[in-house]
């Protein structure tokens, strides 16, 4: 393990990490000494109980601070990413709200700064790897958190999540809007094409009536307008068959979104693949797991 002679993290940023990882009282998140050691061994192949990390004290928080300030920066980034992923999994499971304002964005900024190579340095480390992983992890946690909301809040939350999801992959999403009493759940841009969005989080799968209604909205717009119908619960086979082929709509369900985020598949590339498959076959809905092999 390589060590740095100068601290990696400014004091003000360390205070932020203290808040994010609950380090104020010498603890780190909900780790015991045993699980803390096991986490570092499993995630980073590091012995966090090594005396070199206890130079300033033996508590979990003091060992973590020493570790973050002394090891090389790519390892610091890997550790922060692993700790954030664990933190979010615990927080979502316990249905706890975020308590640190701007936690995700501030951590991304810190990771980006740590990922910048020193002037003249040669390294095989790619700065975007860490930020990409954090993006997928955070979005997946946001998606899973929606299931904990009440039905009314869940519908609105789903629209907010989709806007964040589209923007995370550079698709210039816009808010939901109304046109003469007609509700459109937003829009985005993909490969210079504009897509209107219909988003549903219902207990039942979407059938042909909802698909035809969305198709009718598109037919009132410019001829080049396309549509994405997102249904968390999916679509009925009968509805897809009755809807037919050759429409201007592609479809995506909740499992599609989860697989994109869980497998690290950029959403813009996934949607492009769906568009191409629709152009080749006429089918509006092809599942992600059927297009991308592991």
Automatic annotation (TrEMBL):
Q: Name one Pfam family in it.
A: Mrr_cat
| Swiss-Prot/TrEMBL keywords | Endonuclease, Hydrolase, Nuclease
GO-annotated biological processes: DNA restriction-modification system
Among InterPro entries, the record links this protein to:
Restrct_endonuc-II-like, Restrct_endonuc_IV_Mrr, tRNA_endonuc-like_dom_sf
Domain (Restriction endonuclease type IV Mrr) spans: 155-259
Question: Is ATP-binding found in the keyword set?
Answer: no
Q: Keyword check for Magnesium, yes or no.
A: no
* Residue ranges of the TM segments: none
The cross-references to SUPFAM superfamilies, in alphabetical order and at most eight, read: Restriction endonuclease-like
GO molecular function per UniProt: DNA binding; endonuclease activity
Recorded protein name is: Restriction endonuclease
């Amino acid at each position: 393990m390589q060590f740095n002679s100068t601290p990696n993290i400014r004091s003000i940023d360390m205070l932020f990490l203290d808040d994010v990882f609950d380090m104020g009282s010498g603890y780190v998140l909900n780790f015991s000494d045993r699980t803390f050691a096991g986490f570092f061994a499993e995630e980073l192949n590091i012995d966090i109980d090594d005396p070199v990390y206890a130079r300033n004290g033996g508590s979990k928080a003091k060992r973590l601070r020493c570790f973050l300030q002394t090891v090389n920066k790519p390892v610091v980034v890997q550790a922060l990413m692993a700790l954030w992923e664990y933190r979010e999994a615990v927080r979502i499971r316990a249905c706890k709200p975020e308590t640190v304002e701007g936690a995700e964005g501030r951590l991304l900024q810190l990771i980006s700064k740590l990922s910048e190579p020193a002037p003249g340095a040669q390294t095989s480390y790619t700065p975007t790897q860490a930020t990409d992983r954090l993006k997928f992890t955070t979005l997946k946690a946001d998606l899973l958190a929606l299931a904990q909301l009440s039905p009314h809040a869940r519908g609105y939350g789903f629209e907010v999540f989709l806007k964040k999801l589209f923007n995370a992959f550079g698709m210039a999403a816009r808010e939901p809007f109304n046109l003469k009493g007609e509700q459109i759940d937003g829009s985005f841009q993909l490969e210079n094409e504009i897509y209107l969005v219909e988003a549903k989080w219902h207990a039942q799968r979407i059938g042909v009536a909802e698909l035809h209604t969305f198709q009718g909205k598109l037919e009132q717009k410019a001829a080049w307008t396309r549509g994405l119908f997102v249904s968390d619960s999916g679509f009925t086979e009968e509805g897809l068959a009755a809807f037919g082929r050759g429409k201007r709509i592609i479809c995506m369900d909740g499992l599609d979104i989860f697989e994109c985020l869980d497998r690290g598949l950029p959403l813009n590339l996934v949607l492009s693949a769906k568009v191409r498959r629709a152009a080749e076959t006429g089918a509006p809905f092809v599942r992600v797991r059927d297009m991308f092999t592991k």
